Input
Amino acid sequence: MTQRFYFDTSVFGGLFDTEFEEETTLLFEMVSLGQIKCVYSNLTETELTNAPERVRAFFQDLKEELKEKVSVTPEALTLAQTYVDEKVVG
Output
C-alpha cells in the first residue's frame, strides 16, 4: 500500500529554497517512484496560484496518478478547531 503524505504549499516551494531543497528533492523522488502519494487540498491548489511560476509549473507537471486532491470541508474545519480547542495540536 502506498503511503499518503499531505503536501501543503510550502512543500512545493521547498524545492526552490536552498534550506529545504535537498530533503524536498528526496521526498519528490519518492513520489515519482510511486512510494508516496502526494495528497493536496483545494486550499493548497488555491495558494499555489500566487506562488512563483516555477513552483506552479512543478506542481502542474506532476503526473496526475501521483497526486490525490482532497477538499477542505466544513466538517474538516470543525475537526481542526476541535483539535486546537482540546490542545491536541497548537
